[in-house]
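Could someone model NAI with this protein?
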Amino acid sequence: MSTKIAIFGVGLIGGSLALCFKGKPGITVVGHAHRPASAEKYINHGVVDHATISIKEAAMDADFIFLCVPVGNLDEYLTKLSQIPLKKGCVITDVGSTKASITAAAEKLEFKDVYFIGGHPMAGSERSGVEAATPLLFENAYYVLTPPPGLPDKVYESLVLLLAYTRAKIVKVDPIEHDRIVGAISHLPHIIAVALVNQVCDYNETNPLYRRLAAGGFRDITRIASSDPIIWRDILLNNRGVMLQMLSDWNKGISEFIAMLETEDGEGITGAFAKANDFRSELPEHRKGMISSTFDLYIDVPDHPGIIGKITTRLGENDINLSNIQIIESREDVPGIMKLSFRQEEDMERAKKVLQNMDYSISL
Ligand SMILES: NC(=O)C1=CN([C@@H]2O[C@H](COP(=O)(O)OP(=O)(O)OC[C@H]3O[C@@H](n4cnc5c(N)ncnc54)[C@H](O)[C@@H]3O)[C@@H](O)[C@H]2O)C=CC1
Ligand SMILES: O=C(O)C(=O)Cc1ccc(O)cc1
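Reply:
Sure, complex below.
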């Protein structure tokens, strides 16, 4: 039996899904691009079997359609699809970071023998575009589905079965509840990271030492501030009701900190840290979360010249994928530490062995 999968928007998420499906028994993956140059790029990157700029050509005969465009374009594509004769039993799904508006829009459209199931793979990165796509992106991550009431079980099961190729863990969530939860654990942290980086950027105008000293931890906790501006404009505007409420709660929390500092309320400050510590210690460990973490190694580097090339070459020879490299110099007169980041724990473990064999001193 053959299965045709059409992917609209073959970027980070669409491209990663395409790579999970392409080459699997009986599956053909077709990518839809809104520009001819993008269609060519999808083919050159080998992520799809075919690419087209025609919506009709991509969607016709498809068994599954994945909408992987920015949230602000989802409605438009869904409406266009509702005007095309699709294959009987076709399942349309999306990967948008918000679920309430797209599931409501789908319910209003008249699809005949075609089903819409909202989706959100809760994994990703600050990178974008097909260049960043990887079939490992969703492994062990949660993948939310929001099936509408009355959806036949076997239709839902067919999508779940296909998504097994992503190795993600499927979880059913109500769309409105979904938007509140991701608002708190993903959208709010993105706003805070951007506001924090921009605050330091403004201070840096007065003294460029801010940027020079902002290595290490500051860089790590603000990684998500480098996310794609269009993708995030659409997410935040779409979830603005939830975000406005959460930012108002945020303001309350910050005001409490201001009051504690003004009144020198040390007990209040220790209480706030203790509460956060308790909650954080109960978060699941070693689980792929929404905001992805990297696996890092720190290496003492007595003198820099040539060492980066030597280490990266050796890791490359061992097929170890490095996601980032950074030299941390806390003082200008002391040797540095090299931080190597990996997306996969297995890559980090293998790198550790390779570098230990090269006699480097390593810490995690
Ligand atoms: N970035 C992330 O980590 C995650 C993103 N998402 C959601 O996945 C969707 C795609 O995001 P990414 O893959 O990160 O973005 P991306 O920028 O890597 O890919 C977007 C794709 O949509 C295409 N596209 C852009 N504008 C378009 C338009 N006007 N019409 C048609 N196609 C257009 C682009 O050419 C590109 O192929 C978004 O809805 C986002 O909310 C979901 C989970 C994680
Ligand atoms: O960069 C990160 O770690 C992310 O936060 C990725 C991400 C972005 C959007 C989503 O809807 C889900 C995950």
